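Please decode residue identities from the backbone states below.
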């Protein structure tokens, strides 16, 4: 494969800046320049394909590939979705039984990501689950239960008071649900998804790889692959990145990398 460098970029608040349409537009313009210069650009997100398209219907115009569902899935230019790891029947049943037996005083909803679809129930093909809660207490209780019962099989990332909730497009998600637990199989994360794609593309030179993100789920890839953080990054990520690897926006990183 002939190319110069490859950027793996988080989507929400890195590539797509929800609070700054102007910077989002600058990011998209910069991405086009980056690719026109012979480089590759990969959206690397916790979202599934449907969720990504709901926010950005034309995302394929800017990405050569996508690493989706926190590393669980790869979307190729042909539109083919490759599922790296699914839960399987036994784990799916255990999760559904656990959720059915939990009492939630203030409401809970669930999105189960599969290749080409997002459902409200875990199946064997599910590769990631996102739990939404109205109550922070319910969220904490659920995290504790999941850790106790699935700590050896699953990984969890919890976000309290998420800054936005665009999944209200799904009729079982309430607009008051702002506390989130992301559930993936142990060992599957953005870094694992990046490694899988690099292997499939035959890319082995670490000097060609750049990552950038803003959230807790970006820590691994930023630490593993020449990573940068945007200036408004979550404290958990920000404190792990050297000062010279912090940029205010994606478009500033691209300008820096395109400079002679």
């Amino acid at each position: 494969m002939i190319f110069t460098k490859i950027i793996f970029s988080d989507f929400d608040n890195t590539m797509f800046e929800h609070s700054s349409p102007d910077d989002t537009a600058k990011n998209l313009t910069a991405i086009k320049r980056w690719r026109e210069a012979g480089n590759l650009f990969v959206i690397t997100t916790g979202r599934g394909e449907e969720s990504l398209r709901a926010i950005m219907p034309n995302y394929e115009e800017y990405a050569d590939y996508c690493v989706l569902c926190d590393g669980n899935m790869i979307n190729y230019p042909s539109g083919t979705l490759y599922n790296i790891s699914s839960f399987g029947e036994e784990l799916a049943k255990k999760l559904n039984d656990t959720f059915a037996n939990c009492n939630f005083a203030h409401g809970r909803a669930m999105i189960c990501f599969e290749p080409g679809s997002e459902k409200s129930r875990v199946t064997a093909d599910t590769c990631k689950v996102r739990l939404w809660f109205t109550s922070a207490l319910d969220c904490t209780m659920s995290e504790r239960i999941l850790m106790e019962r699935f700590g050896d099989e699953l990984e969890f990332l919890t976000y309290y008071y998420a800054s936005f909730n665009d999944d209200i497009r799904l009729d079982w998600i309430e607009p008051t649900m702002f506390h989130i637990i992301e559930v993936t199989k142990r060992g599957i994360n953005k870094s694992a998804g990046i490694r899988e794609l690099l292997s499939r593309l035959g890319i082995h030179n670490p000097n060609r790889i750049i990552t950038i993100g803003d959230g807790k789920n970006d820590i691994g890839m930023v630490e593993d692959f020449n990573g940068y953080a945007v200036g408004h990054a979550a404290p958990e990520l920000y404190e792990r990145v050297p000062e010279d690897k912090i940029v205010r926006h994606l478009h500033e990183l691209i300008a820096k990398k395109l400079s002679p």
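Observation: The CA atoms of residues 46 and 240 lie 20 Å apart.
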